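W.,

You were right to be curious about this one. When I first looked at the sequence I had no strong expectations either way, so I just let the prediction run and decided to look at it fresh. Below is the sequence, 466 residues in total, followed by the output.
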Amino acid sequence: MMDKTEHSKSRREFLKKLGAGAFAAASASLVGCTPGNKSAASASAAGTGSMTYRRNAKGDEVSVLGYGCMRWPMMPSPDGEGEIIDQEAVNELVDYAIAHGVNYFDTAPPYLRGMSEEATGIALSRHPRESYYIATKMSNQSLANDLEGEALLKASIEMYRNSLKRLRTDYIDYYLLHFCGGGDGLPFFAKRFDESGMLDFVLKEREAGRIRNLGFSYHGDIRVFDHLMSRHDEIKWDFVQIQLNYVDWKHASGFNFNADYLYGELAKRGIPAVVMEPLLGGRLASLTNALNARLKEHRPDDSVAAWAFRFAATPPGVLTVLSGMTYMEHLQDNLRTYSPLEPCSQAELDLLEDTALKMMEFPSVPCTACQYCMPCPYGLNIPAIFSHYNKCINEGNTPLSSADPDYRRARRAFLVGYDRSVPRLRQADRCIACGKCKEHCPQTIDIPAQMERINLYVEKLKQNTI
């Protein structure tokens, strides 16, 4: 572990490297996180060095790689009805992560159709409680659609206590007010937390020590974010979770807001940031062939995803970067990136900004595969449809005309891949535009309109009428 002199020297060299760049300017007043590298048992077994840690104001040393528990591996249910979490695979991933220095695990009551907290609690409870930090959320946004006042408070408290039971713990290390900015913005936040009394409840729980750090996750209306920043002196946020990646840094779309602003506002107040969607729903894991090749030319041994993860952790006020690692190879690749972290140089930041600008020329769907839109009442696999469409854009398999020289190959790749990745009965042509999904999307995607657009494109490919 670095001593204070080494910490200070490391920080000075890092800020000098970035010069007058946006990260350095935004982080000038941020004191909530300090860097460090534990010589933990650590990541040597993965062929890497020591995990990089960031220390918050309360002294927690948090791994800069955080485990997002929204995408645990699934398996067919024994009763033949749908899927369940593969607990044995989850246990293996958690064991490996902890053995290699990861100590922050983020879940929420609605993740994986309500199954994530239980599976995460089972896996983590097999380890000493002091060896990991648990983050979960007050996800009462659905409750607030039907309840208000005391009834909403009672149901929200029950959700909180159920989280403690499922996670097999008597305290939460990092607790978030979830989905702040969603719905109709400030009125919805007020209904969920102020008018119901739930904010007062969680503040008392923090005072009692059953919540160690209190924060919120931001999605949507920037007025809600600004409102919550204005209340920092009153609430004293311990951390805030924001969407941050090299596209959203300056070019956020939909109802997201540019991350350079969000991060800058946190930095002014010394509030550590927890990063979600560093890969922008997987779209930054593999770009177009040309963009992939350009990144590989600069760092041949790094995956394309590693660039996004390095970017997300480069701002020194970032406490941890969440990654939903479904497979062992994802975990191992991220361990190589963060054990230890090599922050992006200014030249690399410039390269990634240029990459973001080039990506904006392609009409991909800004889906992050959060699955809040699921299940669809008509059986569509909405995230899988968007994932296939975006993948084909990245790989050059979305021909615009039958006159394209590569039309036949690209057409076949799109249609065959579509049938393989999305069962016929779950494809876009099944959408009846009921709109149930649209109200739950944190990216504010007009999902029915996108389904119609994609289905029209698919039919034109099938009929050779492009």
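Here's what jumped out at me. Confidence is low (pLDDT under 50) at residues 1-21, 39-47. And, maybe more interesting for your project: The CA atoms of residues 295 and 307 lie 8 Å apart.

Coffee later to discuss?

I.
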